[in-house]
Amino acid sequence: QLSSHTMRLPGASRRALLSHSLSHSLSLVALFGSARVQRDGIAFAAEPSSEAVARAKGAFAAFDQRDLPLADRLFTQTIEEWRRLDRGVEEITSLLVARAGVRTDNREFSAAKADLDEAIALMRPTGEKSNGLGAYREYPDAFVQRGLANEGLRDWRGALSDYDKAVSLWGGAGDGVNPYTLTYRARARAEVGDYEGALSDYRGASSIFSRVDKNVEQSSFARAGEAVTLYALDRRDEAVRVARQVVTRFPGLTDLHVLLAADAWDRGDREKAIKEWSFACDAISTGCAKYRDVKEGGWLVDVRRWPAPLVQRQRTFLEESQGGVMMGARAAGS
After folding, report:
1. Measured torsion, CA atoms of residues 12, 14, 20, 22, in degrees rounded to the nearest 10
2. Domains present along the chain, CATH in parentheses
3. Tens digit of pLDDT for each residue in 156-173?
4. Which pTM was predicted?
5. Where is the signal peptide, in residue numbers (predicted)?
6. 258 near 283, Cβ under 8 Å?
7. Strand, coil or helix: 171
């Protein structure tokens, strides 16, 4: 999954990536130790105890198992111990970034950002080569993580700045850029009104996912973002064409079936609209209940963040079709 890129997947793969650097360091400690002694007048960092090493490994295990309170507590204890032992910057930053991942997943975005601010500051002296590229993968990854924390804080410009920095550290363009980060940046660009930039990023991400990663699912998700962005740009026919292409190849995208339903209803194609809506509600395991929440501040507006013209068409569809005239198992609501 990781291919030649980093942070290819959210969730488990991201947590595995965060643990890699520290796990390597812990292995070296276990093998060789590094007790704080004076050797030729030079002080070396003290070796963590076996209990401290086990606690650090337990933090990553708890993160992977989604026990976020335990992971946060163990990471905090480990960071305190690593500071006391004056361990190296590489280990401290790995721990800070990992704890930030826990806190982001737990929606503690301010605390996550504070960890990432410190980690980035610690890496800044060595993280960037003279040509502007990242000297090691953890540096751009930390900017991506901070971008996600900024998104949680609804600081879209801060998120965009972080994603821009990460992309520049990967070379700015081409197959060396992490496509997940392009989708994150596309989302941030749309939030600040740069729909053309968002469109470019979704297309770039889709291309890398398809050609390099051979990942049909993620390529389809990126193209779904492209379709919604085209709708925001009032390029409605293009949006519908892309949406149809995507659901033909990857039919399980509720978002696009609902988009097609709302659009078809607005065009007067009632049969097509009900067909797409029924497929979204009955044929896809997640159902369509969230797409009924079209009020201001509701899920479609505030969480999914569809563009206003598309939200209005969905409202009209639900009102005029009496809730989509839903048929089948999910007619009552999930």
Report:
1. -100
2. 1-153 (1.25.40), 266-334 (no CATH)
3. 999 999 999 999 999 999
4. 0.84
5. none
6. no
7. coil
